[in-house]
Specification:
Low-confidence stretches of chain A: none
Structural class of chain A: alpha/beta
CATH topology of chain A: Carbamate kinase
Strand order of the largest sheet of chain A: 5-8-2-1-11-13-14-12
Helix content of chain A: 25-40%
Largest interface: A-B, 43 and 43 residues
Mean pLDDT of chain A: 94
Oligomer: homodimer
CATH class of chain A: Alpha Beta
Shape of chain A: globular
Number of domains of chain A: 1
Number of helices of chain A: 8
CATH superfamily of chain A: Acetylglutamate kinase-like
CATH architecture of chain A: 3-Layer(aba) Sandwich
Largest sheet of chain A: 8 strands, mixed
Distance between the termini of chain A: 21 Å
Radius of gyration of chain A: 17 Å
Chain lengths: 258, 258
């Protein structure tokens, strides 16, 4: 099977011009087919602030009312996505920017209100990769913004880690998929105080132990849940690393094992 | 040759929720392959105002400094484009939103500074339709925002009428292309005071006469220049009409003839 690398990069990396250009150069240099999934939360918060819209976060997730939905649609699908696409084109990669609405790539349902009303936030329902595969096979490089649609005409705000995982699982039927989560640290740490204490192989049972003892906490937990879920569903390799690690051919960072 | 209809709709229609939904329903009902090119100027002006960015227009064209470029990228490629895509998906059309940067569809050069510095405004240089044809032939419906790129990593603001014309010319080698410019009036008027005085057939020489006598003026002139240019370059039919005229199978509005 052909290899497909799906790289998810967080907001901080893609929102700083210098680190973005370095990241994109490294990304373009990856062998084989590739997809980039990006965030953009910091820019969204900044634009919302400039527009006088208050940003409300609950457990790291953005409460997305109608006005905030407009902001994230503008920032993620417009500003961040198209600047990445234009930069990739300049680097010789035939990029195409997409949200979950384009080509009906990722359909979601508006998250049901339980204790918290997250607003226009989408939980992934289905992934449809047919047309995208045709493009991939012509060396087109999809750049995916963290937005889905509900099939009823509404865009929905969706976590980029989750979208990367959902895409990886859907493509695992057709390609040998490597999923790389790029973030600030070198990998998952066994000591939160020591940036070099990278866990090289993290099994699911070890993850659960670290989670119970509090070594792994907060934002890392949903990321790892997404990663292990992908691994369980046929994705060949899931790596958590920083942008430096992207160049190491899978040797740096934390490698998830089931 | 297969038929391809390219519809360009102005900002006012796509920025009013009710008229947008009606337009999209009529657009989806068109037979054959189709592409929608949209504006979004009114929303851009509104968002710019909310962000405290002054809008400067010269002869109907937006002066696009760096901050304004960010606004139009957010509004055209994000807010307006993705809402259209999501609405089309809800109506059963497999839409994909694009700018000129995506798939390297339309490359432009930053307009040289003569009397006026338009800023980050792009004049169309080349159109590359290869991958888009593959998608069209799979019944995908492209939705194109009025933005191009310079091949050096920068987005550029580009007139939607010009983009529609450039796409029509590029596709004319492969399809029988009908180009429809939708705007507020029923067609080109022989009497600016009488909305029913629609010129049914407008030849290029008649256009030049009306232009000299002042009957046709202002924003209509570049639109007609674009239209006649398309006709001269192999586009089968160019019609100027309102959204009602879109349903008439080419019988309403003004038909350009060379």
């Amino acid at each position: 099977m052909q290899q497909l690398t799906i790289v998810k990069v967080g907001g901080k990396v893609v929102e700083t011009p210098e680190s973005l250009q370095q990241l994109l150069a490294d990304f373009v240099a990856l062998p084989g087919l590739k997809i980039l999934v990006h965030g953009g939360g910091r820019s969204a918060t900044k634009v919302a602030e400039q527009l006088g819209i208050e940003t409300k976060m609950v457990e790291g997730r953005r409460i997305t009312d109608m006005e905030t939905l407009k902001v994230v649609t503008m920032v993620y699908a417009g500003l961040v996505n198209k600047n990445i696409v234009a930069s990739l084109q300049a680097k010789g990669a035939n990029a195409i920017g997409l949200t979950g609405a384009d080509l009906n790539l990722i359909k979601a349902i508006k998250r049901p209100v339980k204790n918290i009303d997250y607003g226009y936030v989408g939980d992934v329902e289905s992934v449809q990769v047919g047309e995208l595969m045709e493009l991939l096979n012509k060396n087109v490089v999809p750049v995916v913004a963290p937005l889905t649609h509900d099939g009823l005409g509404n865009m929905l705000n969706t976590n980029a880690d989750t979208m990367a995982s959902a895409l990886a699982v859907a493509f695992a039927k057709h390609y040998q998929v490597n999923l790389v989560y790029c973030f600030e640290k070198k990998g998952v740490l066994s000591d939160p105080e020591n940036d070099d204490a990278v866990i090289q192989k993290l099994s699911h049972s070890l993850f659960k132990q670290y989670q119970q003892s509090g070594v792994i906490a907060e934002g890392m937990i949903p990321k790892l849940d997404n990663g292990f879920n992908a691994l369980k569903s046929g994705v060949a390799k899931v790596i958590i690393t920083n942008t430096e690690g992207l160049k190491s051919d899978g040797e740096a960072g934390t490698d998830l094992i089931w």
